[in-house]
Amino acid sequence: MGIKKVTAFLMAVLMVCGAAGCSDKTTQDSSVNETETDSSSVIAEQDVEQKVSSEAQETTAESEIMSEAEQTSESSAVSSEAESDSKADENSDITAEAVQDTDTAEDNAAEINQWVSTTIYSPVDSVYHTIYVRVTKSVSRSDDEKYVNDAIELHNSLSSEYGQIDESQLKIPSDCELCVMEYEVYVPSDFPSSDYGIIAPDINFSVHNIGGGGIPSADGASTYIGMGSMTSLETEEEVSYQVGNTYSFRCLYMMVQGYKNYEFTYDSYAEGTSSDDISSDVSVKGYYKIS
How many other β-carbons are positioned within 10 Å of the β-carbon of residue 267? Predict the structure, then answer.
């Protein structure tokens, strides 16, 4: 009986020790798990903080980009508005400074760069409407040979074979030379137009000898009849003409070298004249100085 009690006692001790060992191991495992959990939690928090920081930086960058885009857009809008205002002021100056074509005459021709109110035909409603014209320069080959040559060369580069200017075919008299006249046309925004715009608002100028008659030859022994015709020169390729704008044009003509006693003229009709009412009785002539 003594041995059995001893044995029972030892087994009880072992069971208690085993339970205690398990408890210690569980506590250690729990401690390790808690450490690992704490570590994972710290890492997760750091990841979140880094993500938040990255997103904040991206948001700031996007905001800066949007701000720059908005500033650029606002700047462009302001610039466009300023240009529009400037153009409106310029157009207002044109209409305010212009003289009426009926106020010009052979002895009262419009000065160089003087705007003149006249009309051209609009196929939209078959009526003549107001535009503004001014002669800006006239240059003879004697004045500036390169300028005249360049103007002809540019025209030929932009024209079809039919429109080429071949000086060898012009039969220019020995006392005459080629000249180039430049002028501008402002077309008001209320001028009738179609979806594509308007036809070229060029003017059919001609040369008028002051006092009438033909242009006298250099030696005065003869007179040139019909020397007043002018040929339009091309200056741009595929131009789209729109109302509210100012356009530049050139004309080529022949003149006796050194002769200056002439003017440019243009025949038109009063504002509102329809194609059915056109006649020499209602025509209007404008006069423009050559220099």
Answer: 15
What is the widest separation between alpha-carbon atoms in the chain? 171
User: ∠112-291-99 over CA atoms, to 5°?
Assistant: 25
Name the DSSP letter for residue 146: H
Q: Write the DSSP string, 25-88.
A: HHHHHHHHHHHHHHHHHHHHHHHHHHHHHHHHHHHHHHHHHHHHHHHHHHHHHHHHHHHHHHHH
Q: Which residue has the tokens 């997760």?
A: 44
Cβ-Cβ contacts under 8 Å for 183 (sequence gap 6 or more): 133, 134, 135, 136, 203, 205, 248, 249, 251, 288
Contacts with 261 (C-beta within 8 Å, 6 or more apart), sequence order: 209, 210, 211
Tokens 């109302």 correspond to: 243
10 Å CB burial of residue 285 (0-12, 13-18, 19+) is middle
In sequence order, the 6+-apart residues with CB closer than 8 A to the CB of 218 are: 175, 256, 257, 258, 259
| Local structure of residue 217 (DSSP, 8 states) | P
Q: How far apart are CA 37 and CA 155, in angstroms?
A: 86
| Nearest residue to 253 via CA among 205, 217, 218 | 205
DSSP secondary structure string, 85-129? HHHHHHHHHHHHHPEEGGG-BTTBPBPTT--EEEEEEETTTTEEE
Count Cβ atoms within 10 A of the Cβ of residue 212 and give its class: 0-12 exposed, 13-18 middle, 19 or more buried: exposed
pLDDT per 10-residue tile (average), the chain, 291 residues: 44 42 43 46 50 54 56 57 63 93 96 97 96 98 97 96 92 96 98 95 96 94 91 92 97 97 96 90 92 90
Distances (CA, A) of 147 to 126, 136, 150, 178: 38, 15, 5, 11
